[in-house]
Specification:
- The protein has four helices and three strands, in the order H-E-E-H-H-E-H.
- It is of the alpha+beta class.
- It has one domain.
- The protein has a three-stranded antiparallel sheet with strand order 2-1-3.
Amino acid sequence: MSIIGRIRAALFERTTDADGAFKVVVGDHSNFQHESFKAKAGSFADLDAAIARCQLIVDHELEKMYKPDMTAEELFRDYNMFGREVWIEDNDYTIWEYAKVKCREICPDEW
């Protein structure tokens, strides 16, 4: 299965632990305060699995936004403004540093 196929499968697969302690939520950056713009992306028994789901979602978002000759800074800016935000409910984990690292991997320029 291609990387895109694996990402799509991970994004949309149902988790078996509906009462997991770590709930991943996806929201719209521009409407983050509105409940109607939030969706559950899975419920996980452990933090590592929840973080992995968050990272897959960000990977997918960055892949969709990337354009040839884009700098890492431009890609991160576009993700920050227009991408879907992802977080783990009731947890301090933040995806932003991971997103910056991925932008540098995708666009290996000087940032």
